[in-house]
Structures are given as C-alpha cells and as structure tokens.
C-alpha cells in the first residue's frame, strides 16, 4: 500500500539546497524506483517535502542510497555540516486511495 511521507527539514535546509540535491540526484529526469510523487516548498520559514511512495521500504532505500549522499555533497559544497543541522521531522501515513 502507498505511503505519504511528510518531511519538515531543519532550519538551514532551504529550497535552494533541496533544488540542488534534486538536480544532483537527477530525479527530475527519472523518478526513483518506488516513488510516485515529490514536491517541496517553504512554509513558516522551514523547507517541507511531501512524497508518495509505493512503500516505506522503498523510501528508506532511496534515502540511504541516494538522498543522503546527495545532501551531503550539496551541503558540503556550501560549507555546511549536515550532522550539526539536525534531522527532519518525518511523518508517515498510509494512503487509503491514490488517484493519478
């Protein structure tokens, strides 16, 4: 069953950083296996990401194998240390119905 993943990123993670990581991963050209939808935006001074994935496992695999290395590269290029930025606030919700 599909899952909705909501991330509220730590202060310091901006849309610019998320755009750069998205470009680094090349996911605009080809969505990762298991991914259905991704959007990111800023709200109340924080960057947010909302995704729909086939499963939590597919999402976690993507985070470990692709997202974290890309974020590390992008933040390091900007002189930022991701280990000092904190973790995103993550909410995972099972999707009842998905229309696309």
SSE diagram, text form:
Layout: E1 3-8, H1 15-25, E2 35-43, E3 46-53, H2 56-77, E4 89-94
Antiparallel strand pairs: 1-3, 1-4, 2-3
Helix pairs in contact: 1-2
Can you walk through the features of this model?
This protein has 100 residues and is of the alpha+beta class. Strand 2 and strand 3 form a beta hairpin. The protein has a four-stranded antiparallel β-sheet with strand order 2-3-1-4. The model has no long low-confidence stretch (mean pLDDT 95).
How would you characterize the largest beta sheet? 4 strands, antiparallel
The secondary-structure class comes to alpha+beta
User: Care to count the β-strands?
Assistant: 4
Sequence stretches where pLDDT stays below 50 over 5 or more residues: none
- Portion in strands: 25-35%
**What is the 3D form?**
globular
Distance between the termini: 15 Å
What is the share of helical residues?
Answer: 25-40%
Instruction: Give the rounded overall mean pLDDT.
Output: 95
Order of helices and strands: EHEEHE
Short synopsis of the structure:
The chain has helices spanning 15-25, 56-77, and strands spanning 3-8, 35-43, 46-53, 89-94. The protein is α+β, with helices and mostly antiparallel strands and 100 residues long. Helix 1 (15-25) crosses helix 2.
